[in-house]
Amino acid sequence: MSQNSTCPVCGAPTQASTRPFCSQRCADIDLGRWFSGQYRIPGPPADEENLEKPEINDER
Ligand SMILES: [Zn+2]
Hints:
The protein is mainly alpha-helical. The protein has a domain at 2-41: Erythroid Transcription Factor GATA-1, subunit A (Erythroid Transcription Factor GATA-1, Chain A). It has helices spanning 24-39, 48-52. The longest helix has 16 residues, at 24-39. The chain is elongated. Bound molecules: zinc ion. Zinc ion binds next to loops. GO terms for molecular function: DNA topoisomerase type II (double strand cut, ATP-hydrolyzing) inhibitor activity; zinc ion binding.
C-alpha cells in the first residue's frame, strides 16, 4: 500500500528520494504553500487585517 503513494501536490507517483512528493519541485511547492498559509492566521476577521497593519509608506 505504501508503494502506491501519490504526490499530494500533483498526484504523480511518489519517488522514494523525495517522499512524500514526486519530485523536489513539488516538495518546494508544498513548502511554499505552508509558508504562505502561515501568513494567513485564522481567527480575526479579514477587516482587522487592515487595522493591524498601519500604512507604512517607506519610500526608498
Ligand atoms: Zn508532484
